[in-house]
Amino acid sequence: MMSHLHHSASQTFSISGVLIFALLVYLRRWLRLRSHERDKVEGWRAGSFVSGLLFIWIATASPLAELDHEMLTAHMVQHLLLMTLAPPLILLGIPRKPLAHGLFHPALFWFAAAATLVVWHIPSVFMLGLQSQMWHEIEQASFLVTGLLFWWPVVQPWPRASKWPESSILLYLFLATLPCDILSGFLVFYDRVVYPVFSASPRSFGLSALEDQQCAGALMWTCVTVVYVIAGAVFTARVLSPHRSADQPDDLAIPQFDSPRIAVRHTDPHRIEVV
């Protein structure tokens, strides 16, 4: 028990140090951009990025991290923080700059996130994450990485570089709810404990192992649905916004006239020739 507590304390310190370092690097870069491009670097992005890092800390280094071996609900909160809430906030916090587009199709990101969700909740793989600290860290890292990949096309779409229509983001979000709905529905309505390890765990908050499982499933079902609906509504509003053309590059915003071709040639102050 003492070695476990020591390891947990060292892990908390390490994660906190990495997150603080990331925060300092980000704020230094954000302040530099802010001083040069005040009108183009929105202040709310810094708050979004900090909130995303805070959610990562809560999931991996707060007292919540100690409960994931005792409650499936605590594990589900970790999963939602790392895969559903922190990634879009972090991506929203990045000042918009020209980026490399079109390298990967968003379908790959969708399958990566869905596969991560399903595989880590297979009972044998789930137990591997509980029994091995290394695999537990890999599990959490995979939640965060695939969460960032999944949310990238939503937060920073690539309509001009990819061949798929921009409106398909709504289908992308809808399809993403299906694996979550299946898993959460199974946890809510299955009448047996899926992960027997929680049957022998101390009863936290007065919940039995089956009630804890149902609570975890209901939490996942509700949170994912609400977040994806909000994301879909915001994306739709942005696409349909009449002022959206202001965000387009200048070369796309300026109309081009090819025929007839009109130019004005200034020859002298008293003569204008039209060709």
SSE arrangement:
Layout (H helix, E strand, L loop, with lengths): L1 H35 L7 H17 L3 H4 L4 H21 L13 H14 L3 H9 L1 H23 L12 H22 L19 H32 L9 H4 L10 E5 L2 E4 L1
Antiparallel strand pairs: 1-2
Describe the model.
The protein has 275 residues and is mostly helical. A hairpin with a 2-residue loop joins strand 1 (264-268) and strand 2. Residues 1-6, 157-161 and 245-267 have low confidence and may be disordered. The protein has one domain (2-242). A two-stranded antiparallel ribbon has the order 1-2. It contains ten helices and two strands, in the order H-H-H-H-H-H-H-H-H-H-E-E. It is 66% helix and 3% strand.
Over all CA atoms, what is the radius of gyration?
24 Å
Largest sheet: 2 strands, antiparallel
Order of helices and strands: HHHHHHHHHHEE
Q: What is the 3D form?
A: globular
Distance between the first and last residues' Cα: 88 Å
Number of strands: 2
Low-pLDDT segments, ≥5 res: 1-6, 157-161, 245-267
